[in-house]
Write a structure and sequence with these properties.
alpha/beta; Lambda Exonuclease, Chain A; 7 helices; binds iron/sulfur cluster; iron-sulfur cluster binding
């Protein structure tokens, strides 16, 4: 199988969410939150498509039962080697940084320039620069290996505390029937 930025994002939020998504149990299409995110990405910077390139790139598994990587990058600046990501969130999250680092890692594994990343938060009117140094790459590799192991398990990971689940698209799936 291939690990995506979405799965890595979920890994950092909730292992159970990542496992469910990886096993094709999907709820996102019913979520207004996801729709809003797409809408912001499409409407905030309408001139984007002219300036940047959409890239889909992969790293194939090293061994037969290993895990490959797929990155689908919406806004890549090939001249300067900069990955841009737009987030609708009103809060910065480690998972956003990890997502951009994942894109940079996959580009570099393909010998494509990835100097740094920029996360744009239109709601906050802020941007955040993302680097991928040796330490960051080492963390990323550990997360990828751990995520791969969890996804490969037949057992669905445990629930998070309910207080952390309020905005999750799997809320009804996980908590219906619970008190
Ligand atoms: S509802 Fe909670 S436990 Fe279930 S996938 Fe979402 S965050 Fe994880």
């Amino acid at each position: 199988m291939h690990l995506t930025a979405t799965l890595l994002n979920y890994y950092l939020i909730c292992h159970r969410k990542m496992w469910l998504h990886a096993h094709a149990i999907r709820m996102e299409h019913t979520s207004d939150v996801v729709y809003e995110g797409k809408l912001i990405g499409e409407t905030t910077y309408p001139q984007r498509a002219e300036r940047y390139t959409e890239v889909e790139i992969s790293v194939e598994p090293d061994v037969p039962d290993g895990i490959g990587l797929i990155a689908k990058i919406d806004f890549y600046d090939p001249y300067n080697g900069v990955v841009h990501e737009v987030k609708k969130s009103a809060a910065k999250e480690q998972a956003h940084v990890a997502q951009v680092q994942f894109y940079m890692y996959v580009l570099r594994r393909n010998d494509i320039k990835a100097e740094y990343g920029i996360i744009e938060y239109p709601k906050l009117r802020q941007t955040e620069r993302v680097e991928l140094d040796e330490e960051g790459e080492s963390d990323l590799k550990k997360w990828i290996a751990d995520a791969s192991q969890i996804i490969g398990s037949e057992r669905c990971p445990s629930l998070l505390p309910k207080s952390k689940c309020k905005s999750c698209s799997y809320f009804d799936f996980c908590w219906s029937g619970e008190v």
